[in-house]
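Standup notes, protein team

Yesterday: finished cleaning the Abeliophyllum distichum set.
Today: Scarecrow-like protein 14 structure.
Blockers: none.

Input for Scarecrow-like protein 14:
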Amino acid sequence: MNSSFYNESPACHCEESSDNEGKNKQHYRKPIESKRGRPRGSKVSGTKKEVIDLRSLLTRCAQAMANNNTATASEFLKQIRQYSSPYGNATERLAHCFANALEARVAGTGSALYTALTSRRIPAAESLKAYQTYVAACLFKRMSNIFANKSIGRLTREATRIHINDFGIHCGFQWPCLIQGISLRLGGSPLLRITGIDFPLPGFRPADGVEQTGRHLMNYCKRFNVPFECNAIAKKRDTIREKNSGGM
């Protein structure tokens, strides 16, 4: 259980990690490296890999698209395709994704590309694995969730009802920690209502994704005896009005 949820600041493990680091340094010994010459028959390559500023190419391609200069944009796309790859380093992979989007913009197939991507239903288990990898690589997301949840807990310490409007809720991975935290409140948990808002899915069940998220959160709340209500909204964000979120 997260017994420190209502503390002013999250627990710091800096000292513990530094002690462990010191112990590891004491037991670490640099391996003995064997010094050998260059293998026979090998040659020192004198060619250098050409350095390309993919960020600049992407920016100039986007500017050409904004000016309706499709010929110039297509030339930039050819260069970007030459130096980007879905299997390269981080910059090359990112450039590959942006190149796909720009190419769809040039060809006028952006809507079809979006429909094809959204029609593939990604299971929650796969989304969770991807989210865990993302949080492990980028601590900013984890820390923002921690401080947001703790701020909500601190500001609603004596409230009997909590209403959260979550734009782009997706799978709602942020909220299990909050649910577990408010379940520790003395005197019982407050009523938690989450209005989950996300883009509609194509097909006959546009709200299927956000409704599934609501069911997952409902099961988690039952596990920790937290009264829960979910309002699932599958609409474009510019069409959302205050009355859609409902009242407490």
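Follow-up from PR in the comments: Residues 10-28 have pLDDT under 50 and may be disordered.
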